[in-house]
Amino acid sequence: MNFKDFIFCAIDFTDLEQSKKFISKIQKHIGGIKIGLEFFSENGPKGFLEIKKFGVPIFLDLKLKDIPNTVKRSAQNLINLKPDYLSIHLTGGLKMVKDVVSIKNNTKILGISMLTSLETSDLKSFGYNLSNLAFVENLAKIGEKADIDGLVSSAHEIPHLKKKLTKTNMIFVTPGIRLSKHKANDQKRIISPGQAIKNGSNMLIIGRSITQSTNPINSIKKILEDIEKHYED
């Protein structure tokens, strides 16, 4: 197994040329890249197509959520760009999610459950009297019913979800990845790369640990070492 395939680097830059330069430096050492709002809001579809020229798998992480008709039309525009993965919020409801899945073509649809920047106290402030696990499970079941391809959640929840979901080929995508010495920043439910893979994650979304490193290649090497250590346990 090539452990680098687990790693999707979050290219959270605004500047297109800076993004291209960074991708050219790391592209042989990762499995894919994630493009989010910061990049897309500045560079749009044209910028996305420039990044697509690198030929690496792309996760277009725009976390769509609105009324079903609006999301379906917006998703169609994005699917026309042929990203490998596209994210939508499962809290948009079953119909919204189903409508996007119905037009996905070859793009895999990933359902956002609960952002890793949130925790139980945030749920309570929203009026939900649920644990993280129960909230994520409920959303995961909506996603499974709509036949999404993958689920975005903390890796802490994956072992439980694997027991509760019947879809055997669900892709588990994990943000909030940090090596033990790295700061959590605005993430709350964090986990190490190796432990995430051990818990069942198929795709690790890693940004600042790589992009803010003085030596990105060396940081990727350390991430790979952590994965290999846990994978063999």
Q: What is the spatial order of strands in the main beta sheet?
A: 1-2-3-4-5-6-7-8
The gross shape turns out to be globular
Number of strands: 8
Strand content: 15-25%
Which CATH architecture?
Answer: Alpha-Beta Barrel
Treating each run of at least 4 consecutive H or I residues as one helix, how many helices? Answer: 10
The end-to-end span amounts to: 15 Å
Provide the fold topology.
Blueprint: E1 7-10, H1 16-26, E2 32-35, H2 37-52, E3 58-64, H3 68-79, E4 85-89, H4 94-101, E5 108-112, H5 120-126, H6 132-145, E6 150-152, H7 158-164, E7 171-174, H8 193-199, E8 203-206, H9 208-211, H10 216-232
Helix pairs in contact: 1-2, 3-4, 8-10
Overview in brief:
This protein is an alpha/beta fold and 233 residues long. The protein contains ten helices and eight strands.
Jot down its keywords.
about 230 residues, alpha/beta, TIM Barrel, 10 helices
Give structural notes.
The protein has 233 residues and is an alpha/beta fold. It has one domain: TIM Barrel (Alpha-Beta Barrel), CATH 3.20.20. The protein is built from 10 helices and 8 strands. The protein has helices spanning 16-26, 37-52, 68-79, 94-101, 120-126, 132-145, 158-164, 193-199, 208-211, 216-232; strands at residues 7-10, 32-35, 58-64, 85-89, 108-112, 150-152, 171-174, 203-206. Strands 1-2-3-4-5-6-7-8 form an 8-stranded parallel barrel, surrounded by 5 helices. Helix 1 crosses helix 2 (37-52), helix 3 (68-79) runs parallel beside helix 4 (94-101) and helix 8 packs parallel to helix 10 (216-232).
